[in-house]
Amino acid sequence: MKTKFLKILIVSLLCIINNTQAQLPSQSCHDDLFVKQAANKFWGYVDMFDEWRVEAVFTKVYPFTGNKAVVEKYGQYGVANCSGKLIIPAEYEEVGPLTFSESFWAKRGGKWSLVNEKGILTAPGNVIAIKEVGFNSESTWLQMQDENFGLYDKKTTRFLAAPRYSMFQILSEKASIVQVKEKFGVVSNSDGKYLFEPVITSIKKLTQQVIVFQEKGKWGIMNTNGEVKKVAEMDSIGFILNNLFYASKNGKAGLIDAQGREVLAIDYEEVNPFYDYMSLIKRNGSYGYSTLGGRISVPLMYEWGDNFQIGQAIVKSNAGYFIVDKENKKVTQQTYKWLVKTPSRNYYAANRDGKYLFLDQTGKEMMRPTFGLVVATDTNEYVRVQNDSTKLWSYFNITKNKLAFENGAYDEAGLFKYKYAFVKKAGNWGVINESGEMVIQPSYEKIEYLLNNQTVYFIVYKGNKKGLLTSNGTLILSANYDLISSAANDLVKVKENEKYKILKITGEEAIKTKYDFISNSIEMPFTPEWPAIIKKKKDFGLLAQNLTELVEPDFENISYLGDNLYLTVDKGKKGIISSNGKVLAGNYLDEIKPQSEKYLPCKQNGKWGYLFNTGKMMIPPTYEEAGDFYKNLAVVKLDGKYGVVNKQGRMLLKNEFDSVHYLPNNKRRLVSPARTIEITDKGVIKQVD
């Protein structure tokens, strides 16, 4: 009885909701419909009571938008109404995202057309790409067969902006950036008219809502609606913090907000990034600090200043160095010849009266000036200090404000790492732990850390030979080896008497086989630890981590290509093997270069093409030269001239350029007598004036 009452109540509520919805411009279905798969593995729609409203006859269905839904039948797409009737037959390759509009985009034969609810085509059929402006907008950006873009109105079936743009980027539902030749402009998405004529030479999005643009060499600010907030009069504009932007003009710098208003007058020689909500600024050779709101809370009166940290900053005046707070109140009682905040940020190191000492976080002296030298870069609680008279080194415990070890005085001392430190006495090195105990006596010419499965071991040197010890000083391997390299999983790779082998970390043999070479992190640091490249006599193979020969030594050479791919050489020809030993490309190529964006330049019969990292030839060898792909673009040479190709093998710039220059940050510049083209680090092709 309760269930029946509840159902009646819900239906009544739905009636009220649906009556309300009926007043909206775009109606939804009478019942809320939900996607469901039936026992026959096909899909349809049920209501909120799990009763079938649209029979499960579709291969796949998508949620309703208003009173329409995209449905699929065996790879073809159509549009169904609330009762499941196909108002658009399932005969399209793709249907664009549905909106509450009465028309929508459908693709057939590789081309998009606008289709209304009666299935009638109402737009040209030579559209190769679409981009809806907004969820319920009538405007759509179209890419036409000639590669140009235009803005189309679905309601009037007319172009708001003719297809003449080489590029567009939607900023918001109100505006889009467009490119005409090498210039940028901004158009309104509602009527296609220019909000900003195409005179912009560069444009960047600094934040979600703020865009900077360059016109005639100067920079300005606009929002995503295309409204100019700062005319192009600045030499530079850059993001600083929150809603603040660095701006410079005529050699002076300041801060402006997203509306283009000056927060800090553009009148300073330096305006630095904010640290602890304070910016170090400079004017007329003097330093001070500004708050986020542009208030000069620390006057410009210092010769030098450091960044604020935890409400304090080190400054320098004629008298020396000291610490101030955010209101320029002096924190330290003394002025110092030298003063630094340490990387750990929990103490200061200073020099007064020619000797060194430490200050705590508040700037209070922890001792009188004592030491000859201190290592202020040490980041743990043990800081290295030198006795002024003996010149010996010790460890000072910052937390306890005293020397860490009573008898700890060394000729040299290293930084604590993995809870151990190397120390030198009488010309030899040993190891101490955090209690100051000498776990390895000073008897070695050199010591290195070896980390295996998060356990610390030590490689020790006697002459040019190496040995291995545990962290408590137990000998594992005598110093008889030319190489010892960690190989993970309690294994080490070693070289002895010109032979390589694998040992357990305990020193026992892991396998009896000895090789003429095993790749390792010392001799081949950029090659993966496993599978390891091995060599038997003159032939190369791969050794798996389980110590079985993944690829038997049968190649002239094997080297690492990157991305878990290995280059093989056999009878002078090159191929590719994956890290699991699978042959991806047989040895039939003359050359294969390391990959970029999963495309490997490869050479066959004197011509270059591109091989995918699966071994599939994606672009046949047809070029005289083939550069690396970056941002989907690569420079190639054909008939003695350079051009640009994409990953589909399509020439985006014809081979008409005499030279190519590879610039920093992956930029590339192509030069011909007629013009110079630059490919930016974002993959944008633009002409250089």
Outline the structure in words.
The chain has 689 residues and is mainly beta. It is 3% helix and 55% strand. It is built from 1 helix and 71 strands. The strands form 19 sheets. Strands 4-5-6-7 form a 4-stranded antiparallel β-sheet, with no helix packed on it. A 4-stranded antiparallel β-sheet has the order 11-12-13-14, with no helix packed on it. Strand 60 (591-592) and strand 61 (599-604) form a beta hairpin.
Count of helix runs: 1
Helix/sheet category: mainly beta
Strand arrangement, largest sheet? 4-5-6-7
Radius of gyration: 36 Å
Tell me, rounded to a whole number, the average pLDDT: 91
Which parts are unreliable, with pLDDT below 50 for 5 consecutive residues or more?
1-26
Task: Please render the helix and strand layout as text.
Layout: H1 2-21, E1 34-37, E2 43-46, E3 52-58, E4 60-61, E5 69-73, E6 76-80, E7 86-92, E8 94-95, E9 103-108, E10 111-116, E11 127-132, E12 139-144, E13 149-153, E14 158-165, E15 167-170, E16 175-180, E17 183-188, E18 194-200, E19 202-205, E20 210-215, E21 218-223, E22 228-234, E23 236-241, E24 244-249, E25 252-257, E26 262-268, E27 270-275, E28 278-283, E29 286-291, E30 296-302, E31 304-305, E32 312-317, E33 320-325, E34 338-341, E35 348-352, E36 355-359, E37 373-374, E38 382-386, E39 393-397, E40 402-403, E41 412-413, E42 420-425, E43 428-433, E44 438-444, E45 446-452, E46 455-462, E47 465-470, E48 475-481, E49 483-486, E50 491-496, E51 499-504, E52 517-518, E53 532-536, E54 539-543, E55 549-555, E56 557-562, E57 565-570, E58 573-578, E59 583-589, E60 591-592, E61 599-604, E62 607-612, E63 617-623, E64 625-626, E65 633-638, E66 641-646, E67 651-657, E68 659-662, E69 668-671, E70 676-679, E71 685-688
Antiparallel strand pairs: 1-2, 2-3, 4-5, 5-6, 6-7, 8-9, 9-10, 11-12, 12-13, 13-14, 15-16, 16-17, 17-18, 19-20, 20-21, 21-22, 23-24, 24-25, 25-26, 27-28, 28-29, 29-30, 31-32, 32-33, 34-35, 35-36, 37-38, 38-39, 39-40, 41-42, 42-43, 43-44, 45-46, 46-47, 47-48, 49-50, 50-51, 52-53, 53-54, 54-55, ...
